[in-house]
Structure formats: structure tokens, C-alpha cells
Amino acid sequence: MKNSFCLELRCKQRWQSGCGQTRQAEVTGLWLHLWTMPCTLWVVWALAAMVSLSMTRPPDRTTAPLSCDAAGTCDGRSRSLDSIPSGLTASVKSLDLANNNIAYVSKTDLQGCVNLKTLQLDFNTIHTIEEDSFHSLGRLEHLDLCCNQLSNLSSSWFQHLSSLKFLNLLGNTYRTLGEMSLFAPLTNLRVLRVGNVYPFAKIQRKDFTGLTFLEELELDASNLQQYEPASLKSFQNISRLVLHRKQPALLLEIFADLLRNLESLELRSTDLSSFQLPSLPIGQNGSPLRKLVFRTVEITDMSFSEILKLLNYFPRMVEVEFEDCTLNGHGYFSSSALEEISDASNLETLTIRRLQIPEFFLFNDLRSMYQFVRRFKRITIENSKVFLVPCLLSRHLKSLEYLDLTENLMVEEQLTNSACEEAWPALHTLILRQNHLRSLGQTGEVLLTLKNLTALDISKNSFHSMPPTCHWPEKIRRLNLSSTHIDSLTPCLPQTLEVLDVSNNNLDSFSLLFPRLRELYISRNKLKTLPDASFLPSLLSMTVSRNIINSFTKKQLDSFQKLTTLEAGGNSFICSCEFLAFTMQEQQMLGRILTDWPERYLCDSPSHVRGQQVRDTRLSVSECHRVALVSALCCALLLLALLTVGLCHRYHGLWYMKMTWAWLQAKRKPRRAPARELCYDAFVSYSEQDSYWVETLMVQELEHFEPPFRLCLHKRDFVPGKWIIDNIIDSIEKSHKTIFVLSEHFVKSEWCKYELDFSHFRLFDENNDAAILVLLEPLEKKAIPQRFCKLRKIMNTKTYLEWPQDEAQHQGFWLSLRAAIKA
């Protein structure tokens, strides 16, 4: 029962996980075998199966969004798509879906793309394309289906692709090109790439029918087993063939069908170690072939001699190229074969890149090649570990005009042997880029034998420094010293130069005179300003990009009288107001001279505009007119100060300030002194012009009265050396009453104003009757200043004592004053 329950659980889980009837039948079939298992094992088995099923579920078919621009170019490359995105319309003109997981193309996927011209589906997992999937693509010109899993090719795919010019079917899994003529509808096809490493095994005559105007064919026939003769003869205009072939078998049969039309032949990934050349069925005029390329080919001394025999069939051949090839030999080539072709050959260009010679230490000195190479005009031997060109070989290269020994092992000592007397007599261009040269002076000395040398490239060597003087071939006009780690220039450089490249070094200045220099390349250095134009009177073109130049001016540009092109982008431009004003005013001139304007001209500072294009940058008025703004602000402040002084004078502002200060001082003191601290019965405030009346009459009547009154007078009772304002405040606070002797002189007295004001602030604010007003003479209320508003109010609401002019009334006045003081 337990086993039955566990199996039932297993069946239920499998059914719920979406296995369907197939998985259910699978479980049922296992019943008899598993029914005796313990339940624990059943549970373990069920869990493991569930994990397995979760891992084998179909992938999520969510489509990643495409990136499309206004021109109709859509990029969906490398987005993990497992189907062609839906919703594609007629606006799409180029669709790149390469490097995804698309496995199926249905007839509805592309039906809306009626204007599509380019479709890239390479590097997917496409195994099925429905009939008429490309039915609506009548304007398609480029179709790439490379590197998928198409095992069968259908002619119906191409039935409506009459505009197709490029088709790539490389790297799929088909064995043949179909039962019918696959490419017959493609009457405008110009480039075809077809075949695979394995299992493509058979080519038939019908396969390429209809491709009359094909110009280029790349055929991967690496493991081709059958080739029907004349299968490639239908091509009438073909000019280039790229053939992948592991072994030389069937090679000549394929060549024989195409050599009447080919101009360029490239052979890839072929082992020619055992290659032997029989006679080829080519007419008396020979083949029009002009270029022969061997890429990733293995050869031996003997097979190389056989390859050279091919030149007898190609009288128009001018260029031979070996790239990534391996020579399993010691350089003992057939002298007879070389002699046969030396006179008839028209070869001018030999290119060798990354040649591997496993036993190079046993390699011969190439004496057998001397006569063969004497007509070569251009030789390139790149990255092939060349450390010496024997002097005798150099002397035989009498026609050589161009020699490129880039990325080899040349040093000055061996170069002396290579450039010996009478070596390379016609050489005008020598490239020694990225070798092991160390001394610039010695290099120039060695090359003095090259009388016709005009162009020298010794870039990417480690010179580091430059001697003060050097000797160079007298005709040298072009010199490339880029990436040589030099940090300064000296008169070592020849004055005859017309083109100089010192890019990617550590130069911080350029101050050498070159009267003939027309082109200067000095990018990726540490220049802070443009070179001085007086040193370069003939300069036409200059590149100073990626330095640390902050700016340049119209005056600097105008100083280069003959300059037509300037490349100065990628510098650390300070977008000052002056620089921006210059670029704004001279837009037309900058667009004409600067080849990389405006894209590569970006602001480095100020920080808030960093990264913006100089052409589009604008600064605020405060940044561009700071001096004028500060001047205007100072003038405004000065005017404000003058206005303030005027207003203070007009409206007694200084007085208000003084009173405010005094009031603040008074506020810090107690509101009212305690009774025991009162020293005077009254403080008398009066004008100096009224001192006779106060000091003679008032003092006599009050201080000599019984009982006497003690008065506080400033002349007599103020503490010497104490601030007068403090004296006034203290005297008022220590007096029971304050008597103001009012007169015209009082109103005009500054100190009387202070005394009255302190009484105003200190006494009137306490709402008491401590002030006694005595009018010594008639005084109109309007004579009292408006700022004494409370005094004016008191005079309007309260009575005051008025000194009588009639002497008979004086006694009554004094009685009233004594009563007021006692109150």
C-alpha cells in the first residue's frame, strides 16, 4: 500500500508539472519495475524528477525590446531572444538579430517588413524556416543566415528575393545545396558565402545555376567528397574566390572551372605539405588572376616550390600574400623551379604576416631566392620574428621601393648589415615599426646608405631620449616617431621634413623650426598650447588632439597663414567667456578648419558645464561680466551710502541711532532705583544760555528754602571722567523728579535733547509724573521737534509751570514748583 501510494503521488506530480500523456505513460510503464521500492526511495525519486522537469521547461519567450532609430535601423543583437520580435512594420529597413537563441522562423514573423533591406540572423540556433517566410521581402538586399542549424535548404525561401545582393549560408549543417537549383531566383546576387566544415560533402552542376552575375564566392568545402566537373563554370563575372579546403584533393578541379575569370584567389585552412602541381587546362593567354592569398596554410620546402610553379599559369599575377601560415622546412627551395619563373614572373608585391617557421634556427640564407625576388617592388613581412635581412639579399632587391618589417626583432646592429652599401638602392619607404631599436642617432646613421629614402616609420620603438644632433638620409621627407617614449624634441630631427608624426609621447612643448613641414601629428602628448606658428611657416595640416590644451584664440589660428585643417578635439578645454565668445563668433571658420568640430570639443571646466559641447555651452551674465557687475554693485552701494547719509542728515537719522544706542544702554539698567538710592529731589535739565536763571534764582529759592531741596546740576554734580551719557542717565535715575527748563535755547541744545530723550525713554514709558516742565519763556508747541512726540502729547494734555514776567507773581511760581517737587 505504501509503495502504491508513493507511485500515485509520483504520477500526480508528473501530471501537474505539465508532462502530459507522454510523461504519464512513461510513469505507468515503470510500475512493475518500481513497485517493490521502499517509500523513502520513492520520495527521493519523486523530488529528483520534479527538479529535472523544472529544468527542462521551455524557456521564457519574453522578447527583449529592440533599439530602432529614425532611419529604420533596429538592433536586437545579443539580447537572448528566442524568437523574432512581433509587431515589425514597414518602417524597419535594417534588422540585426544576430547572436540570439532564435530557433524557428515562421511565415508571419517578417510579413510586415516590406521595406526591409538588411536582415542578419547569424549566430542563432535556427533549424527551421517555414515556406514563404521571406515572401514579403522583395526589397531585401542583404541576408545573413550564417552559423545556424539549417540541415535542409529550400529554394522557396529565395523565390521572391529578386533584389538580394548578399547571401551568407556558411556554418550550417546541410550536406548538399538541395535537390533543385537553390539560387536560380537570385539574379542580382553579387556575393555568396556557402558551405561548412562538416558535413557539406557534395557539389553538383545544378547548384549554382542562375548566378550569372556573381562577383564574389566564399566556399567552405573543407571536407568536400564529390565535385561534379564544371559546377562552377556558370560564373561569368566572378572576380574573387575564397576557398576553404583541408586537403589539396579536388583543389585543381575547382580552380580549373574558375581561373578563366578570377582576379583574386584566397585559399584557407589547407595543408599543402604534399601538394603537387600537374598541368592546368588554361588557354594560351593564361588566367587574369592578379592576387593569390594563402591564409592558415601549411607548406614545406617542396610544396612551396610547387606553388611557385603556379605563377607560370598566371602571367598577370602581381601580388602574393601569406597570412598565419606555417613553413615546415629549412628554406631549401627548388632552384630549377625558381629559375623557370624568375624571368616570366611579373610579381611586384609580397606580403607575409605572422609566418611560423618551427625550425627557424636551421633556416637557410635564402640564396636560392635572390634572382626570384629581384623584381619585387613592395615587400611586407610582419610579426614573423625577422631579426636580419642579409646584406647580399638586400643588394639583390634592386627594384624594391617599399619595405615593411613591422613587429619583428630588428636592432641597430643587425640593421647595419641589412642596410649595407648598395642595399635597397630604389627604396623610398621603410617601416620598422615596433621592433627593438633603442638609439635614434644610431638608427639615422645606419640608414645613410639609403640615398633615395623619403619616408621612414620607426614608431613604437623605445628611444626614450633624442640626442642633440643626428644624421639622416638627405632625401627624407616623412618621419614617424609616434609612441617612442620621447619627452622632448631636439635639432636632431632633419630640417627637410614635410610630414612629422610625434603622437603618443611625453612632449610638453614644440619649439623647433621646420621651414618645409606641411603636416604635423602631435596628438596624445602634454601640450598646453598650440605650437608657435613662427616655427611652422609652411604648415597645412596639424593634429593636436588629446593633449591638455585649455583653449586657443583667433589670433593663434590666424598666425598659421597656410593652415587648412586642424584636429584639436579631446583636449581639456576651459570654457571661459572669452573662449566661448570666440567659438560663437567664428562658427563658420571653425567648421571649415576643424575636422572634428563640434563633436570632440567638450568643456572640462567650469564643473557645471563639464561634458557639454563647446558650441552649445552658454555661461551666465554674472560669470562673463564679473568686473562690470562688481563695479556696478560698488557704484550702487556707494550711491546707497550717499543716499543713506543724506536721508540721515535730513531726517535726523544719526540722532535716532544715538538715541537707540542710549535707549539700549538705559534698558539694561533697573526701571527705577530703590528709594534708598535717590540722592536728589530733582535733576535740572537746562540750556547753558539759561544757566543764570537756574544757578542764581532756582538754586537760591529751592536749596536755601527750609527744608532745603537738593538739586542735581550737571556743572556741579556730574562725576568727572565718566561718560556724559552715563552721567545723564544716572542723574535722572537718582533724582525724584526731573525739571526741564524749556526755552528756545533748550530746544536747540544737543545735550538738552539727550536729557529730554532719556527722560522720554526712561520716565515717560513708566507712565508716572516724574517730569516737571517749566517754560522760561513762551514756546510754541511746533518749536518742539516731531521726534519728541510724547513730550508734545504731555504738553497738550497736562499743565506745566510758566515763569511769569510780572515779578509780583514770582513767589507763587516758586510755591507751585516746590509743591510739584514734593508731589
From TrEMBL:
Family annotation (SUPFAM superfamilies): RNI-like, Toll/Interleukin receptor TIR domain
Gene3D superfamilies: Ribonuclease Inhibitor, Toll/interleukin-1 receptor homology (TIR) domain
Organism domain of life: Eukaryota
Topology class, membrane: Single-pass type I membrane protein
Keyword Membrane part of the UniProt annotation: yes
Swiss-Prot/TrEMBL keywords: Cytoplasmic vesicle, Disulfide bond, Glycoprotein, Immunity, Inflammatory response, Innate immunity, Leucine-rich repeat, Membrane, NAD, Receptor, Repeat, Signal, Transmembrane, Transmembrane helix
Domain named TIR: residues: 678-821
Subcellular localization(s) per the UniProt record: Cytoplasmic vesicle, Phagosome membrane; Membrane raft; Membrane
Protein name, as recorded: Toll-like receptor 2
Organism: Erinaceus europaeus
Lineage of the species this protein comes from: Eukaryota, Metazoa, Chordata, Craniata, Vertebrata
